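User: I'll paste a sequence; please echo it back and then give the predicted structure.

Assistant: Echoing your sequence first, then the prediction.
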Amino acid sequence: MSDLEGFGFVMPHWFYWGWLAVMPLIMMGLDHLMSRNKPKVEDDKLPPEIKELLEGEDPNAKYGSLGNGFTRVFDWISEKTGVFVAFWTVNAVCFYFFEVVMRYLFNMPTIWVHEASYLLLGMQYLLAGSFALLHGAHVRVDVVYNLLPPRGRIGMDIFTSMFFFIFAFALTLTSWLFFTDSYGMSETTVETWGIQYWPVKGMMLFGSMLLLMAGVSKFIKDIQLFIRMGRGETS
């Protein structure tokens, strides 16, 4: 007799991983189709105050046309990865709605919803790091930073990047060790659902690599911007 008998519907492991891989692609495709039918507003037709507001909300506006082929590829991957995992949030809402209905209407609490959700949100947190770095969304201690002139801020970013890369390399190495150990022993969670745990640690490795990649992109653009500002050029 299976340990899962008597618990009602239990999401199969293969369906959980497959759905997480396919669902965001479907949502991104639908979003692309819907956006094609929306009228586009050209930037030069926007009121000046709106353009200033949008540029102020976009940390990447300072880079302008800076970068190269590598940074554009890195930034594109970070952007699409962030959008991909953002759609996972919809699954967490649906999972917990299902749990509430089963628990309070049918008195049949699930054994998989909570575990599925916290694994989902944990992977989302790990994979969204590069997207957050791309958009300047990480927490910054800016007591001294805001007192510096614009070029001084870029110089500070370049200087402090050494600490970022130490952290990113350590995270990537540690994640690799976690993933290989977990995959080698076919690790599963200790709850009754017993889903595979190594894909989660694989996402930790992938997320740390994305974060490192986004950091390299930012570092290159910061150096280019620092040089241009020193020459009195605009980006």
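Residues 6 and 108 are 10 Å apart (CA to CA). DSSP finds eight helices and no strands in the chain.
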